[in-house]
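hey m, so remember when u said the tokens were messed up on ur end? i reran from scratch. heres the input so u can diff it against urs
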Amino acid sequence: MDEAASARALVRAASGLTVAAAFRMQVRLRGGAPALQEGARTRSYRELDARVARLAHLLAARGLRRGDRVAMLSENRSEYLELFLAAGRLGVIVACQNWRLADDELAHCIRLVAPRLLVASPRHAPTLARIDHAVPATLLLDAAFEHALAADDRADMPDAAEPEDGLVILYTSGTTGLPKGALISHRAMVARSMVAAADWGCGAEDAFVAWTPLFHMGAADQALATLMQGGKVVVMDGFQPAALAEIATRERIGHLTVVPGVIDRLIVELRRLSAPPARVRVVGVMPDLVPPHQLAELTGLVGAPYGNTFGSTETGMPPASRGLIPPGVAPTRLSKQQSSFCAVRLVDPDDHEVADGEPGEMTLRGPTLFSGYWGADAVNAEEFRGGWFHMGDVFRRNPDGTLDFVDRRKYLIKSGGENIYPAEIERVILAMPGVADAVVVRRADARWGEVPVAFVVRHDPALTREAVLAACRAGIAGYKQPKDVVFLAETDLPRSTSGKIQRHLLEGRLAAPGWNAGPRMG
């Protein structure tokens, strides 16, 4: 390497930052400050760093090297974040498995990324015995794991990761019926932390309660952002409204995560408290799926604005999550504000930018963006065409620069905090004997925002609604289950002149007054 090339390499190295390096800087600056709390146990930054170093040695001893994958199958627990940080030192990628998935879905997700090691909590160990995951080695988070961690006193190791190396793989619903793995780099995770700080003011003095699953970006992004900024992460095993409300009275929280479908239960607990929340900067996500009166009541009780968000696993908080709904307000308009540190274009089907006021597909560039879907070159070439990531969501830009959601170019059901593609459900139903055709559409729901409903054409008249639902229970995750099954004749499926099923017309049938329940029970 000549002198000029060597100098350029040094400049590039100095301009990058990894999650592990950002965390270790907080260890130096705030070693005695609380980093992780789980139940009655709290670990300081210095104590957490020591465990992370020992875990990194343990992974290296198992043969894991930069670029390798380790699959994690666990409920929320402190070891989840320890694995993120230890893998981040080695340049290893953590593939976060969704324990809600059916066995076949889970086996697909694990096999997709070909991990060298599968880490599991005791709670989910029986699942590993049921599925054919093809992973050569497993590590159980039990007493033997703790003993091995405590016995390791080797010296610290230098970080092997670089900013563009993958840190985590988070799975998203698949348009073809099976989940896709979104690869998120150190660079993207650091940038997501910066956006949270810039747009919502989250910083070192703020705590974050990680109760939504750490296999989703909502908890993974914010937890790592908190540890990179010097705050405290409170790890909670799922939604516990009474405990969450109580924590809010004693912790200064940056973002209090609340998703559609659970807000009413948190409101009940907040009403019971004798003391108000200590301080919350922002509460909630996805207000489009929440009744306006609930937004007003929740923000009034918490004394904080509601996050008017539009982001994704692939993009983080961008492209449009900067806006805030003031406390006590029942909004009549949910126009979005563009997030910091991203470039946005709205384009027509030929990828030409549309004029303000015209609908166009949301595309974006920015450092928070993921590094593509794992093992899906053809999909990546299509989704990143022209050097912009195409989200599949259609927006319109207003004269004041805000953005209004119009529709989804890719048909998607947003149920609570989960994304569901119809193909995921249709794949299971179409495989059933007696089914000639099937299509799944969304139906408005007062609690979850939207839920899936299946329209089925049967060539076996003995096929029942209960049989269809049973097949879905066996083949896909519980949150993807259709909430209703409607049998109809092939000629009753509305199709365009090109033969494509017109889902919006089926949606209209479900929304029509006096819709007869009879066909659904066939």
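this time it looks ok to me. Confidence is low (pLDDT under 50) at residues 517-522. if urs says something different then somethings off w ur setup not the seq
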